[in-house]
Amino acid sequence: MASPDLFPNVSFAHVSADASTEATGGATAVFGGDASTGAPRLSLVWSGETQAKHTLEIDLSDAQIFKLGPTEWLCVSGESEAKDGVEEKSYSRAIKVVLRTEAESKAFYLAFQQWKHRVISGKAGEPLENGLIIGSKSKFDTKIEASSAKMYFHYYGQLLHQQNMLQDFVRTGTYYAAVMENRSDFEGRVVVDVGAGSGILSLFAAQAGARHVYAVEASEMAEHAQRLISGNPSLGQRITVIKGKVEEVELPEKADILISEPMGTLLVNERMLESYVIARDRFLVPGGKMFPTTGRIHMAPFSDEYLYVEMANKALFWQQHNFFGVDLTPLHGSAFQGYFSQPVVDAFDPRLLVSPPTFHTLDFTTMKEEELYEIDIPLNFVASVGTRVHGLACWFDVLFNGSTVQRWLTTAPGSPTTHWYQLRCILSQPLYVMAGQEITGRLHLVAHSAQSYTIYLTMSAKMWGEGAEQGGILQTSTAKLELKEPYYRLSQPQPYVMQQDQQQQQLPSLQPQGSEQQMQDGLSPSITIEPDQDSAAFTR
């Protein structure tokens, strides 16, 4: 087997209409960087009749490759010629390359793609900053800011962040179980690991008997993944690491199954689900499997006086009238709203929920990428207790719909805590509700180019008691929050405190405007998060 960058004893021939060169055998194909510019090139080197070395250079930055047969490839690149001392692009050149075996043919194709997408600067071999690609913009680049992509790939290119995810044993253990319990889905199959990171899921797939795994990773973590996979040779011989974005790379064959961990906070943060769906459209065979298969965003109103007071107190700094002789109060209102524009990420006690949750389903196997640009979820709940509603609590779960076992990964409150925790959107103006009162509203998520979402939340308490059948709205509160800028609060749930004890901690300035009868004591202990019948596998 040839090395990834050098392929001996290949034959090639020009196939351009105006070319007269005959087929040449015994050549060596070498991938590398141009000595002066560092640009990626494919060099075809052979000896002539006088034993002198000849070289044919192909610039990979604008080249394309097409499969003609099991061992035959067509390389097409632009050529230029000088006219009046000025170099102009004038025609394309096509070179047919024939490898010795199918294994070398596959390796040649992967080397072509890796070198084509390798990011190099003016100095040979010197990498540019993460997130930049030579050539025309891909779909990822057109919708994501370069600065956001740079930070994103830098973050996931560090081992300490990969360790944080690997040490989430709920996450890692559930993936391992989902793969191993469904070996029949992996044995003898081609697998693509979308956003492979450290390569752990690729290694799981190889353990389950995959014929070959393509681990696609765009960050510098691809280098670490290659080292990890090479350090496990019994598995690594069936894994190929490809550095690049799934929107750009090419693979030599279709996949029978995709595996990925594309979930962010509130399921959709970081917008990697879009890349997962794009990978499905580009690489998955019809009827192929996806691990995970579907995702659900769960929502329920909550009451948490401690949290509300904590957020409001952050803005008290701006109520100072004499801060070194300066009155800060003109900025208090803006600061107050600014703190309430931060979703709170923490683990909370499920008894803080005011009603049973509802959920919104995303089917990764059928949905279109564009459906993730804007997600509109209607809200409808019935309060189980009378209390003050401080906002909307959210979490998610995903299903691995294997042929043998269906396994769920959940981030629900009351379940073992994951590195995703849960998320809460707080209303700056809480709602007052009575037991049995209907709570309606809308959760509207709008994607933006910083790889996240703006959250628009509306919650209303409908008329309760006599005249309720007329459906009138009694109170409405709205919030605009930025999912990319959350407040990371706690790693574990706070002790549950009864409602009257929470009220004793309030500042007088934050005392609710309303009668004592509007504030009922406590939250219903009956509001718990029970796993669905089909998600019970998680708790085993």
CATH topology description of the largest domain: Hnrnp arginine n-methyltransferase1
The total number of structural domains is 3
The count of helical stretches stands at 13
Q: Mean of the pLDDT scores?
A: 83
CATH superfamily of the largest domain: Hnrnp arginine n-methyltransferase1
What's the alpha carbon Rg, rounded to whole Å?
29 Å
In total, how many beta strands? 23
Secondary structure: helix percent = 10-25%
Structural class: alpha+beta
The CATH class of the largest domain turns out to be Mainly Beta
Strand content: 25-35%
Largest sheet: 7 strands, antiparallel
User: Span between N and C termini?
Assistant: 45 Å
Q: Outline, from the CA principal axes? A: elongated
Structure description:
Helix content is 21%, strand content 34%. The chain has 540 residues and is α+β, with helices and mostly antiparallel strands. The protein has 3 domains: 5-79 and 91-121, Pleckstrin-homology domain (PH domain)/Phosphotyrosine-binding domain (PTB) (PH-domain like, Roll); 146-261, Vaccinia Virus protein VP39 (Rossmann fold, 3-Layer(aba) Sandwich); 295-488, Hnrnp arginine n-methyltransferase1. The two termini are 45 Å apart. Residues 6-117 form the Probable histone-arginine methyltransferase CARM1-like N-terminal PH domain. One of its GO terms (biological process) is regulation of flower development. It holds the Pfam family PRMT_C. Residues 296-447 form the Protein arginine N-methyltransferase domain.
